[in-house]
Each structure stands twice: as C-alpha cells, then as structure tokens.
Amino acid sequence: MAASRVRPLPVTGYTNLNALGSTRAEILDALAAGRSGLAPPSEEFGFTTMVGEVRTELPGLTGELAPWSTRIASMAGKLAADLEEPLRLARKRWRPERIGVFLGTSTGGAVSTERAYRHFVAEGALPADYNFQRQHTFSSLLHVVGELTGARGPAWMVSTACTSSGKPLATAQRLIAADIIDAAIVGGMDTLCALTVLGFSALQAIAAQPCRPFCKERSGISLGEGGALALVEREGEARVLIEGVGETSDAYHISAPHPQGRGALGAMEAAMAQAGCAADEVDHINAHGTGTQLNDGAEAQAIATLFGDRVPVVSTKGYTGHTLGAAAAIECLFAAYAIEEGWIPPSLNSEPFDSDMGIQLNTTLLKGDFKRVLSNSFAFGGNNVSVLLRAP
User: Fold this and answer.
1) Which end of the chain is more exposed for a tag (fewer CB within 10 A), N or C?
2) Is residue 4 in some structural domain?
C-alpha cells in the first residue's frame, strides 16, 4: 500500500554515545578525521576481532535508582542527562503523561546476567546484588529513563534486532498523529556481550580486522556498543525534522536479506512516500553497510535501483562497529550531523570498492548542502527501517 503523507516531526534535542566518544565534539572530530573507534576487545572471546567499545567513564545510577545500575542503564542515564535542557523546555509545553518513552534494544541487560552466571559458576551462588528484573529485563531501561526524565506517558521497548532503535521513531510519529501524546523520548542502546559476539562468530559473520563496508574484500562485521536518544515533539524549535519512516518485513530468511534487497527498497520508498519526496531530492544516504557479503550486496542493489549512483553513500560502521539494537538511533543522528554540519565523513576501509555495486560510495570528507538524508537499518528476518530526515 502507498504510504500516507505525514506532518514532519521536529527533533528538538538529541544525544549520542558510541566508540567515538560521548560528546558531539568528540564524535564529530573523529568522523571528520576519518578516525575509527574500533580496537581489540577488552574481554577475551577466543578469536581475533575488533570491536567498538564505549570507553567513556559511565557513572553508575545513584539514590533510589542504584539497584538498577548496570552498564546499559548507566548508558541510558548518561544520555538522559544530556537531554535535560530540551526536556526542561518540553516539560513546560506538555504534561508529563503526554510525554512517551519508546526505546529499542537487542540484548538489554544480557551482559549483567552473563557476569552473574560466571559468579555462580565460580562461587556457587549469584551475586548478592544481582536482580534479574532490575538488571536484565527490557522494562528496567524504561523505568530508568522514565524516572530520570519525568516522562509519564506510554512507554515500551522494541526488540527487532538491528532495527530496534529506529522503529520507536515510527511509534512516536503514529501516537502524536493520533493525539495520544505530544512528545516522546526515542532511541535505544545496546552493550557488547558474549551472547552476540559468539553468536555472530557461529554465523561466520565476524571479521578478524575492522569491518570493510562495500569493499570488494569485505569479510564480515565488527560489533560495537552505545546508544542514542532524541526528543521529538508535536511542535517546537527543530534541530532536524523526521519527514518519513518506512518499515517493511520481507521475511525472506531468518538471517539473510532478500538478494535483490526488496525489503530495503520498500522501506526507502515508504519513507519517501510519507514525505512526498522524490529520489532526486535526497542528498545523502547513511547506509546500513555492515561489511558482510550478503547485506552490502542487497542494500547496494536496492539503493542503485532507486537512486542510481547519484547520491553519496556512507557506512559509518567502520567508525563505531555494528551497535545492533542501538545502530538505527546512532546512525540516524549521524544523518542529523550531515544536515547540521554540512559535511559527510569518508566510509572507512572500503577500498578497493566493489564497483559492481552501482552506487556512489563516499571515501573522502565531502562538504555540501545536505537538506534531506536517508538513514537505513536492516535486521534479521527481513525487518527493515529507513528514516528520512530533513533540514528545518
């Protein structure tokens, strides 16, 4: 079905946390310099790989939230604190029960449970301070973010693998249009854990060296961690506008994309249809670009079908690694940087470029007037999200 036109949604504040840093300045400096955040993991997994770890010190939660203090909850706390000023203004405009919280994650607090289980194996009992409900479950993150921000509206988690933190944008879009809420805190976070690192290794999808998106010699992904939050409102002073969110589920295969990228193509088309935007009005694409043979080939085919080789394409996973449930939100904010800053970074480790792909892969810092940017995120099971951002 053709997507209905929607009113653009103002993003009045946002914040990002990944292997490049925890501040806008740190992240922009690394992107502009073409400096990767990938490095050997601090934990031994039994094989060689590179990961994008968050090396920023994360203060734990305190006071009544101390029992919820885990690595992923600390990420959520850092991001929520960074949103305090736009949230302060939003709370003057909207009642707390009209501000929602919609987040995405892939593994939630799995790393905390892994550590607790290691303690159990070594000591015969779980750590005294471990609580599954507070430290593992997805709902614990909703509780933490709700308490820290004062949002009291509808709240839920999305867990659809690598699209998890992109789908909350569509949720906010629909609930604001339905007059159920006036604003929402959207985004998501994920941490590195053995479950995902060993799982992708079992799929033979992890590269030993930094990932090489769209490279002829690409051999797999590099995993990462981090998170991002954005505040979207019915009205307000927009940093950028969410003009369209396209969602598809092609269900071609449990872990492989459709070889012609049909789901990816449909998601991009749906996002543009919501905006009433033609292909020649898109100035840049932040690609999903994981560095695997199947994903990059399918996505490139979808992009080439819709845009040809006119639009500069970048994958930023060479900087942060694939942050899984956080990837859609983190990379959507990279798209926002392109609009606000007027440049896009080089796609790292992509040469020799696979020229059979038929796209324009950007491998240098490129300055320009990027008014409309697509950000793609594609997941297991053929679950696809494409977000179209526009300058205010």
Assistant:
1) N
2) no
Asked if the bond preceding 352 is cis, omega within 30° of 0, the reply is yes
Sign of the C-alpha dihedral, residues 139, 140, 143, 148?
A: negative
| 51-52 and 223-224 strand pairing | parallel
Residue 41 within any structural domain of the chain = yes
Q: Residue 382's pLDDT is what?
A: 86
Would residue 1 count as lying in a domain?
A: no
Overall domain count for the chain:
1
For residue 133, what are the domain limits?
10-390
DSSP state letter for 94:
S
Q: Using CA atoms, how far apart are residues 2 and 341, in angstroms rounded to an integer? A: 33
Active-site amino acid positions:
162, 288, 322
Q: Give the chain's mean pLDDT.
A: 96
Radius of gyration of the chain from Cα atoms?
20
Helix, strand, or coil (residue 279): helix
DSSP 360: E
Q: What pLDDT was estimated at residue 250?
A: 87
Angle between helices 327-341 and 24-33 (to 10 degrees): 80
Say which amino acid occupies 231: L
Residue 279 half-sphere exposure, CB side, CA atoms within 13 Å?
Answer: 14
Residue 207, token pair as written in the block: 């590269």
Report the alpha-carbon angle 299-41-327, nearest 5: 30
The CATH number assigned to the domain holding 160 equals: 3.40.47.10
pLDDT at 111 over 80: yes
Structure tokens that stand for 291 in this block = 């560095």
pLDDT of amino acid 253: 84
Please state the φ and ψ torsions of residue 223, each to the nearest 5 degrees. -85, 155
Retrieve residue 3's tokens: 């997507």
pLDDT score at 115: 96
Q: Using pLDDT thresholds of 50, 70 and 90, give the confidence band for residue 2.
A: very low
Helix (H/G/I), strand (E/B), else coil: 185:
strand
Cα(170)–Cα(222) distance, rounded to whole angstroms? 28
Q: Write out pLDDT tens, residues 216-255.
A: 999 999 999 999 999 999 999 999 999 999 999 988 888 8
Asked if 232 contacts 349 with a C-beta cutoff of 8 angstroms, the reply is: no
